[in-house]
Amino acid sequence: MSPAAEPRLSWKWTTPVDALKGVGPIRRRELEAAGLGTLGELLLHLPRSYQDRRFVVTVARVLESGKTASDTEVTLRGRLSKLRAIRTRRRGLTLVRGLLEDDSGSLPVLWFNRPYLPRQIPDGAEVRLHGRLRTARGRDDGALELLNPSVERLASEDTEPSVGSDCSEPAPSLVPVYPAAGSCGPAFLAGLIAQALDGFDPVRRLSDPLPPELLRRHGLVPLGEAIHRLHRPPEDAEPEIYLARDSGAHRRLIYGELLELQLRVALARARQDALRQSFRVRTDDRVREVCRRLLPFRLTGAQRRALREIVGDMTRRRPMLRLLQGDVGSGKTIVAALALTVAMENGLQGAFMAPTELLAEQHYRHLESLFGGRYRIGLLTGSVELRGRLEADLTAGRIQLTVGTHALFQQDIRFRRLGLVVIDEQHRFGVEQRRRLQQKGLEVGLHPDVLVMTATPIPRSLALTLYGDLDLSVLDELPPGRQPVETRVVPARKRDEVYRWLAGQLADGVARAYVVFPRIEGTDETRGETGGASTAGVEALEERGEEVRGRLSEIPSAAIHGRLSREEREIAMQAFASSEVRLLVATTVIEVGVDVPEATVMVIESAERFGLAQLHQLRGRVGRGDRPSRCIALHGRLSDAGRRRMEVFGRTTDGFEIAEADLEIRGPGELLGTRQAGVPVFRVADLLRDQEWLRRARNDARELLPRLDEPELAALRRRLETRSPIGPEWKI
After folding, report:
1. Among 475, 496, 520, where does a domain finish?
2. Are the C-beta atoms of residues 447 and 417 closer than 8 Å to each other?
3. 492 and 470 in one domain?
4. What is the C-alpha to C-alpha distance for residues 631 and 253, in angstroms, rounded to an integer?
């Protein structure tokens, strides 16, 4: 037993983390704030990667490789000397320099912000270092140095290193690397986890909620053993398999996370299927004739198919729960409007919810025009005045269709006979928000039908996974006459050329154009909103937008963004639609729902700041008429992921191909909206990589669902009922 695992430690899954050596009141609060307040939670803080330290190279071997070794990771063993801390002029930055020597030569070593190292490591101490090589700054001869390596003391006669320090005891050849947790760094967490593991009996301390039959079926180790192996890989572990997250321990957690997800989705679907409507929707010749008279154009085959599926659901006894998915411009809104017509012709009320006020206002005007006064329609957003009258009319049933934002499910909003709920841009809302709107019907004894729509194409496998409690309709056909949008990806240095071209396009007095910026105003901050990325060079509407309007001063223009009042937004949009304004400078408030067929040019500034799906949505604002349309994506400096996004965006206008690429580049959490309620955030599983395990989990969930009352599944049933601490961080 190591000195860290003293007998005072009473090992339980719920033992507070301050039972470990090195955790005082301040550290305990920091760990609790990061969700690591108990030993069990600490052991669920899994490695994000592993360092392969099997092969120790000599200094001479590194020096012989020269520049070709730069930016590669190596493990070296030798004597560390001449450590000194150097204060820099830059606030908050300390450099530590030293020299690693072995029998073959010496190599400079550099650390950032570790001023304590000279105090912890005696001069000439035997160490093992693992880090990245780089060409030394300020040297013209291509000399190498080792950057920010981990340090393992190989001699024990000197003072014992402190818990969580950067000079740990000798480690195995495959070393876990932990993600930081709040203010607690990887090295400190590694020290604590090592202590917790010393008292952890993986079999006795943690029973597996999965029945043995499932573990045998898929050749999986029990959960406790899997967790232990992830923190302490066996000596014979193959690094390539661990680095690829394909070890037996990884597979056990991957399968468990996906099975729990599939069981929760299956339970939600079963609960929905058990409900029974207290009303019956009927479609007869009269209802069909009303729908035909309302149609402004002939439906595509995909629209007719989707409408049959939706109305078929509405006529059944169980409430509808359906996802209508289609690419930008595929005509989802008219399908939803016809479904609402069927509901209202049956004496029911409808609710149409959009994620932004601008989009709600656009839908309200469109539906008012479409229905031509046949139904009374209300608009309910945070900016709407005279809400008291609107609320009274809703409760009395005098308003048949309400279009609105989140304001629709506020507590004081009541319907008389809510029969159909339509939610646009489902990925902007969570599962809980959908249910709160459904609840407005349950308050008066009804189970409303629910139709959710998304113009963010979702790969079918992901749609079935995340929206498995919904039936799926897909609009995979665009209305006739739509012109493909020519897309160009252009570096920011060619901005002048782009705006000279735009001036020529607008000179004919007919064309209309959008110029979109990622934010309203600039900032003096050097760190930005997405993962701390630098905002240097990111264009803002207030500065660059006004410059664009000044450059094209002969073209009538307007600016629109989220800080304008509803009246100001309406005036600008109506002026753009009527051609009084032909250049609209905007933020992403125009991303969805804005439909001006005469708009033929979209310029996107700082395009690297947008995800692929958002770029595709913005491009969808043009190409909605019969004239050729173009989209210009102006970008600044590109990361590797940004370069991939720009390549895909310039290559294809197929929304489903865009979605697959976006899923691969950013992952499902980012694609669908980070950490929104209902979207799982897994510890180990990856919905793109682990398709085979997802298929197995879906099949097993169908088999297990009717058997959850059996004694051998009691632990699994409790997990689903009580949100056990061992599982993905998501809400159902």
Report:
1. 475
2. no
3. no
4. 44
